[in-house]
From TrEMBL, chain A:
Taxonomic source organism: Salipiger thiooxidans
GO molecular function per UniProt: 5-oxoprolinase (ATP-hydrolyzing) activity
Pfam families noted in UniProt: Hydantoinase_B
Domain Hydantoinase B/oxoprolinase span(s) in chain numbering: 4-531
Lineage, broadest ranks: Bacteria, Pseudomonadati, Pseudomonadota, Alphaproteobacteria, Rhodobacterales
One GO cellular component term: cytosol
Domain of life the protein comes from: Bacteria
Protein name: N-methylhydantoinase B
One record GO biological process: glutathione metabolic process
From TrEMBL, chain B:
Source species, domain of life: Bacteria
Domain Hydantoinase A/oxoprolinase: 221-509
GO cellular component: cytosol
Protein name: N-methylhydantoinase A
Xref: Pfam families: Hydant_A_C, Hydant_A_N, Hydantoinase_A
Domain Hydantoinase/oxoprolinase N-terminal per the UniProt entry, residue ranges: 29-200
A GO MF label: 5-oxoprolinase (ATP-hydrolyzing) activity
Single Gene Ontology BP annotation: glutathione metabolic process
């Protein structure tokens, strides 16, 4: 039987629907605010043979766009090689090992086979960001870790659920090694329940259309997605496109890390070569290979958002394995910064390389940092300890169609930042400002968006501040003659004296007391095109609204 | 106004609990939609109904309202009540045609309205724009600070406030927002600022942040207040002008205006909380659905309102529409007042079909809109749409093509399907059109299912309520996709929003935040909160001079497990639950929703809610179709047959809805046409008619 194109489209949206329902179910039931509010999770369907991606939820965090297929592929390979116990119906694996197709330790993956007549039809897998997996600092983002053991508990693939039941022994080991363990049971149950939801929906679909039809459709959809991606790539004139992006430092050695990228286009394929990038680093800014690949994919999806996410869409994209660089980290290199920061620099390198070839589709560099500021302390009245996270946005790059938006979220995320009122309810702090960072947008015919400028004071007790941010040394790049966005700035005022951390955007455990303050100014977006050609009315408007002073506007955009 | 308690229908025992009172007098519900202004006139004594549909007059909606009264030959002077649904505020917000509005806010926080919650318009694509509702030069800061516990950290600087207010007046602001951090915990600074503003501000258009919603989250509360202020003068002017016009015609009663919560409120006070009228149109349609469903004995409904550019879906449980406090009407535009939870799910009749780069047929998201619209509109459209597919397949009456000014023929449409879709897909024109419908229906079914699941329900436990111009064309096919067993098609699907205006209740919703672990809550305090909400609601209804048949009060709480952020709403049987009751009801609701039990974790009580509803006296929906027009037999109601494409071309009977005998039993395939709407019964479907003239379709097995 050959499939008609209509059934094909219906199965395509049906598979998508299965994943979207898993996404929805996972966030609604999750406890971790990182999952429930920030949607730092993803769900997908993977092939039984090689773990390649069949479909992925549209509400998943972008950074996971390709990563789980490596995780699932590794699991399947390890089962075949006898390194992992083979599954029986009712089993769910847990794994967070970054080197086995992951990101950092906090992204915990679950994987479950879907059984049909005693055979595995496909795998369902999801990943969720747990608030803590042990290690040196609460939350796992240790800016000065030098090995993965300092970052937290590392789990190889093991069956956490056996025959539908949670294994209390494995669970007890996990709970003894992580912070705030009593709430994790809620996330574990939510993560497993999402897989069950997917299984039920997929089973209904298989019953309706037949296993063979769906299998055939999956194959056909894969090759058509590849075709679609090739059609998009055809817009890029053949040639080699180069770019460079920088990370301030690895948090341990205060020198910039360099990403060098050369993209070769041949009319229907793109090849990504990171040769010449910095070697593996001592601090946690290494990227594991799965995250590096995923970062390339998510950047391409930002450029071509219409191509559905599946292994087929990735087929025309070849990423040469960047061996010997910090973008292919091996055990025991620390990796906590890879998902939040390095991934965004990789995406930025892809944007910068392709912006001239695809002028209508790519923007100048966005702020591209998650702006992680963690404050751990104790409420003096109750003695209760707390960990506060402030994530923040920054300006997006200008693009052919307009100025970049201000305070946009990270390139790899879609999550909302917490309101100041909620932060002040939960933690003994006071925000003195939460404002648009004036003057920060890179100049251009279409200027970059503006960053954020906030200042927090410790009201009571003591606390320790840690930062994992970036773009403190070099601002987000402007393109086609546009200026760079403003750099990230961190200013700590302690005992009446102000200082900037040595690594500019990264620091760990700065101890603070009541009355001390932290001020953060996040990057502006890069400008697009020659600032002198900017519409004069728009320049005047920005001055009128106080986004630039008249002097800044004069200097950046030239006289009116 | 007199009540007619001796209505014979009540005596007959129909829905006895609701019908102690029946509405007497003459009433007009007038709903202004994007394209048409609809009117339903109801005369209780004559049991007569008049309907009108006239073009909406976008520049001044009141012209269309008066035209509708004229079209139905309704004498405004003789009316007992006019209830009005308006899109004045909706359009103003979506098109940013707002009044010049100024903001005074806490020092350091004037950019909150512009910074939002740090997101982007689309998950993929680093582009897109966001325009704050109040521009930066009209957002001024004033020293003074409250803390989260309601204590004052720094006093309000009244001199700075006066200077800021004077500055905004100088800049020509017409409305004012006073929005300070933590005003939900202690509104003293906002109240004092309003006192001062009243001395300085040239008019009464002053909105305080905590007045509409007293909940934390400065961006959401601020946007809600800013929307309220910036549409307030517009709405005030509009309703005053309309009231004047009606009064010129001799109408001397209260004009009521629909709110987004599905209740109505007097025009005299509606502008105070103008933000509540945003999205009132869709809400009133859902209210009519709930009303119709309750009378029909089908109280659990998913409403399916398909129009030209989009489709709205809402859920009704036990004849009560789901209400949400967290609606975002577009990207980064949250309006956090209670509104009927209507979700827009994309495709409408104008959605364009195309073959994508992968060779797959896709329907939407692009739409031909209303200009040029689908090809069949004859206004220059060239892209094949869902409406064109319906026309080509005979589901819509091809004779209606001739009425279009452009004189488009069926051949034009056939040609477009053959070349743009059929060619690339290797299909003939009708097969391509059938494929478009199949894909559109599957996608819309998925969208409806997502809405249902996100509200925690299985769609198969509901009936589909089909309305809007295109709802009944697709409802049966979508119900089959969803596994929904029944479809309820009301007597007048095309004027459902206007009907909502005359059946809607008076309604006031209250939310109070507790946010404590359940075992640390003072239950006496919780009970006192409920009591105060009820007292406030009763007082509010008392101020509205409208006849009510019955007072209905509902209570619920929102709870979560400690550590969780999402809330679960738990309806309560009364206003005096014990702590153990709340624990048990929450656990039960949680298990029902997630199939997970969490005895390990303690719950928290977050919000305490009450709704005080003034139920209006009953309206007899049977009057919507004039009984005297009904024919004695089905055969006489048949206007002919035509070729309609289902799996293949099928000779299909066509009926005129108003002529159907009351006891009509229909079997698909069949087409039922009426003034502004067409129902398609697919092969295998059957339909019966109830006393109110609703068609109740039983969806057949999959063909």
């Amino acid at each position: 039987m050959t499939l008609d194109p209509i059934t094909l489209t219906v199965i395509q949206s049906g598979l998508q629907q299965v994943c979207d329902e898993m996404d929805l179910s996972f966030s609604r039931a999750a406890f971790s605010p990182v999952i429930a509010e920030a949607n730092d999770r993803s769900d997908g369907i993977y092939s039984a043979e090689d773990g390649s991606l069949i479909a992925q939820g549209s509400q998943g965090l972008p950074v996971f766009v390709g990563v789980m297929q490596y995780s699932t592929a590794t699991l399947i390979r390890m089962i075949k090689e006898g390194k992992v116990v083979a599954p029986k119906p009712g089993d769910i694996y847990i794994v967070n090992d970054p080197y086995l197709g992951g990101t950092h330790l906090m992204d915990v993956r679950f994987a479950m086979p879907v059984w049909r007549n005693g055979e595995i039809f496909c795998w369902l897998s999801n990943t969720g960001h747990w608030p803590d997996t042990g290690g040196a600092v609460p939350g796992g983002f240790s800016a000065s870790a030098t090995s993965v053991e300092q970052e937290g508990l590392r789990l190889p693939p093991v069956r956490l659920f056996k025959d539908g039941e949670l294994d209390p022994e494995i669970y007890a080991i996990i709970c003894s090694n992580i912070r705030v363990a009593d709430q994790r049971i809620g996330d574990v149950k939510a993560q497993a329940a999402a897989l069950y939801v997917g299984e039920a929906r997929l089973t209904r679909m298989l019953d309706r259309y037949g296993d063979d039809t769906v299998r055939e459709a999956i194959g056909e959809l894969r090759s058509r997605a590849a075709e679609q991606m090739r059609a998009q790539i055809a817009q890029i004139p053949p040639g080699v496109y180069r770019s460079t992006a920088y990370i301030d430092s690895d948090g341990v050695v205060n020198e910039p890390l360099e990403i060098r990228l050369a993209i070769t286009a041949d009319g229907e394929r793109l090849s990504f070569d990171f040769a010449g990038s910095s070697p593996p680093c001592q601090g946690p800014m290494n990227s594991v290979i799965a995250t590096t690949l995923s970062s390339v994919y998510l950047a391409m999806r930002h450029i071509f958002p219409d191509v559905p996410i599946s292994a087929g869409a990735f087929e025309p994209l070849t990423v040469l394995r960047p061996e010997g660089t910090f973008l292919d980290a091996r055990y025991p290199r620390p990796v906590s910064g890879c998902a939040a920061e390095v991934s965004q620099r990789i995406a930025e390198a892809v944007f910068a390389a392709l912006v001239e070839a695809l002028p209508g589709k790519v923007s100048a560099a966005p702020a591209g940092s998650s702006g992680n500021f963690a404050l751990g302390g104790e409420v003096p009245e109750t003695g209760q300890s707390y960990v506060m996270y402030q994530i923040s946005g920054g300006g997006y790059g200008g693009y052919a169609g307009g100025d970049g938006i201000s305070n946009g979220c990270s390139t790899i995320g879609i999550s909302k930042a917490p309101p100041v009122e909620i932060m002040e309810q939960q933690f003994p702090v006071l925000y003195h400002r939460y404002a648009l960072r004036e003057g920060s947008g890179g100049a251009g015919a279409q200027r970059g968006g503006f960053g954020l400028d906030y200042e927090v004071e410790i009201l009571r007790g003591h606390a320790r501040a840690s930062f994992v941010m970036d773009h403190g040394r070099f601002g987000p790049q402007g393109v086609l003659g546009g200026g760079d966005g403003a750099v990230n700035e961190v200013r700590v005022t302690r005992g009446g004296e102000s200082f900037t951390p040595e690594h500019l955007s990264k620091a760990q455990d700065i101890s603070l007391a009541a009355g001390d303050r932290v001020r953060v100014k996040t990057p502006g977006g890069g400008g697009y095109g020659d600032p002198a050609t900017r519409d004069r009315a728009l320049v005047a408007e920005d001055v009128r609204l106080g986004r630039y002073t008249a002097e800044e506007a004069e200097a950046l955009f030239g006289g009116a | 106004m007199m009540l007619d308690a001796e209505d014979p229908k009540t005596a007959a025992g129909k829905a006895p609990e609701m019908t102690e009172k029946t509405l007497t007098g003459t009433f007009a519900g007038i709903d202004v939609g994007g394209t048409f202004t609809d009117l339903v006139y109801y005369d209780s004594k004559a049991r007569g109904v008049k309907l009108a549909k006239v073009p909406t007059t976008l520049d001044n909606q009141s012209k269309g309202v008066l035209a509708a009264l004229d079209a139905a030959s309704v004498d405004a002077a003789a009316l007992d009540l006019i209830v009005h649904g308006t899109t004045t505020t909706t359009n103003a917000v979506l098109e940013r045609q707002l009044c010049k509005t100024g903001l005074v806010t806490t020092l350091g926080f004037r950019d909150v309205l512009e910074l939002g919650r740090r997101t982007r318009p689309h998950a993929y694509g680093m582009t897109g724009q966001f325009r704050p509702i109040i521009p930066r030069d009209l957002r001024l800061e004033v020293p003074g600070r409250m803390l989260a516990d309601g204590s004052e950290y720094a006093p309000l600087d009244e001199d700075a406030l006066r200077a800021a207010l004077a500055g905004l007046v100088d800049k020509g602001c017409e409305a004012l927002v006073i929005h300070f951090l933590h005003s939900y915990a202690n509104p003293a600074h906002e109240l004092r600022a309003r006192e001062i503003a009243r001395e300085i501000w040239p008019n009464g258009n002053i909105t305080m942040g905590h007045a509409l919603i007293s909940e934390s989250r400065e961006f959401e509360r601020g946007v809600t207040a800013a929307v309220n202020a910036s549409v307030q003068p517009l709405l005030r002017r509009y309703v005053e002008r309309l009231a004047d016009k009606l009064s010129e015609r001799g109408y001397d009663r209260d004009l009521l205006v629909m709110n987004g919560n599905g209740g109505m409120v007097s025009a005299r006070i509606v502008a105070e909380e103008a933000a509540k009228t945003v999205m009132s149109g869709p809400a009133s349609g859902v209210m009519a659905a709930a009303y119709t469903g309750r009378r029909a004995g089908i109280p659990d409904l998913l409403t399916y309102d398909m129009g030209g550019t989009s489709t709205d879906v809402a859920m009704i449980r036990g004849a009560d529409p789901a209400v949400s406090h967290e609606i975002e009407i577009e990207y980064a535009m949250p309006i956090h007042v209670p509104m009927v939870d209507v979700r827009t799910v994309g495709a409408g009749g104008g959605s364009i079909a195309r073959v994508d780069a992968a060779g797959l047929l896709q329907v939407g998201p692009d739409s031909a809109g209303s200009t040029p619209g689908p090809i069949c509109y004859g206004k220059g459209g060239t892209e094949p749409t869902i409406s064109d597919a319906n026309m080509l397949l005979g589901r819509l009456n091809p004779e209606r093509l001739n009425t279009g000014a452009g004189g488009v023929s069926l051949d034009t449409i056939r040609e477009a399907f053959a070349t743009k879709l059929g060619g690339p897909l290797g299909l003939g024109a009708p097969e391509a059109a059938a494929a478009v419908l199949k894909i559109a229906n599957a996608k819309m079914a998925d969208a409806v299912r997502m809405v249902s699941i996100s509200l925690g329900e299985d769609p198969r436990d509901f009936a589909l309520f089909a309305f809007g111009g295109a709802g009944p064309l697709h409802a049966c096919a979508i119900a089959r996709e969803l596994g929904v067993p029944r479809v309820l098609v009301p007597a007048r699907p095309g004027i459902t929003n206007a009907l909502g205006c005359i059946v809607a209740d008076l309604r006031h919703d209250y939310v109070a935040t507790v946010n404590k672990p359940l075992d640390a809550c003072d239950m006496d305090e919780v009970h006192a909160l409920f009591a105060r909400q009820v007292a406030d609601g009763r007082a509010a209804i008392g101020r509205e001079r409208v006849e009510i048949a019955e007072e209905k009060i509902t209570h619920s709480v929102e709870m979560r497990f400690i550590g969780q952020t999402h809330l679960l709403r738990v309806p309560l049987p009364d206003a005096a639950p014990t702590r153990a009751d709340l624990q048990a009801l929450f656990e039960e609701a949680y298990f029902r929703r997630f199939q997970v039990k969490l005895p390990e974790i303690r719950p928290a009580l977050v919000n305490v809610n009450s709704s005080v509803i003034g139920r209006r006296p009953e309206i007899d929906l049977a009057a919507l179709i004039d009984g005297s027009g009904r024919k004695p037999t089905l055969a006489e109601a048949q206007t002919g047959t035509r070729q309609v494409f289902f799996e293949d071309w099928t000779e299909t009977p066509v009926y005129w809805r108003d002529h159907l005998p009351l006891d009509a039993d229909l079997a698909g395939p069949a087409i039922v046409e009426q003034m502004d709407c067409t129902l398609v019964l697919e092969p295998g479907d059957t339909a019966t008619q109830d006393a109110d003239g609703n068609l109740v379709v039983t969806v057949g097995e999959r063909a």
